[in-house]
Design brief:
Helix content is 38%, strand content 17%. The chain contains 7 helices and 5 strands, in the order ββααββααααβα.
Length: 185
């Protein structure tokens, strides 16, 4: 096992044991602002999205891939899009790599900015998601706050870039209901 520097670690637990940041099961991510609302659910017909989601559940099961929670109850399974960002070119490219199943709290951690907005109508949303994040990762709330701060900085950086969309393997499905692939304006 290679040594990990303190800069690459976040302290966790009551004894504040260093754990590499990259070892988190659940991450705080924020979608760059220019990419907001560019997702399959937004651009597919409702029937197409429901079919795609159902096929994914049939193939992979109704279990949150991050925490293992059973999400088979109606409306419990969130079909989360997995995007890859290539920022070493201009414009940067956001490529849709696939889908994964997520429980509500894991999905909200992945969409931290959305969670902030939802908390107005759902007062327990943030405290419950913080508790879930800490439990899944074995970290303290203070560590979560450092992770949010790091993710916010990355969001600010990514939000300044110009972007191009690559819908990956889902492009043909989008073309069933659109003349051209949805792109940033």
């Amino acid at each position: 096992m290679s040594k990990v520097s303190q800069a690459e670690c976040t302290l966790i637990g009551p004894k504040e044991t260093p754990v590499p940041k990259k070892s988190r099961k659940l991450n705080i991510t924020m979608i760059p602002e220019p990419l907001w609302n560019f997702n399959l659910r937004e651009f597919l017909k409702y029937s197409q999205w429901r079919k795609l989601r159902k096929q994914h559940i049939e193939k992979h099961g109704a279990v949150c891939v991050t925490c293992g929670k059973d999400v088979s109850a109606p409306r419990a399974a969130h079909c989360h899009e997995l995007w890859e960002y290539k920022t070493n070119q201009s414009p940067a490219i956001a490529r849709l790599k696939g889908l994964s199943m997520a429980c509500w709290h894991c999905h909200m951690a992945e969409h931290w900015g959305v969670l902030q907005k939802l908390s107005v109508q759902m007062p327990r949303a943030i405290p419950d998601t913080i508790e879930h994040y800490c439990k899944v990762n074995g970290v303290t709330p203070a560590t979560l706050q450092r992770d949010v701060k790091r993710a916010s900085g990355e969001w600010r950086r990514l939000s300044t870039l110009e972007w191009e969309l690559d819908w990956g393997d889902y492009a043909p499905l989008l073309l069933e209901s659109h003349d051209t692939l949805p792109q940033l304006r």
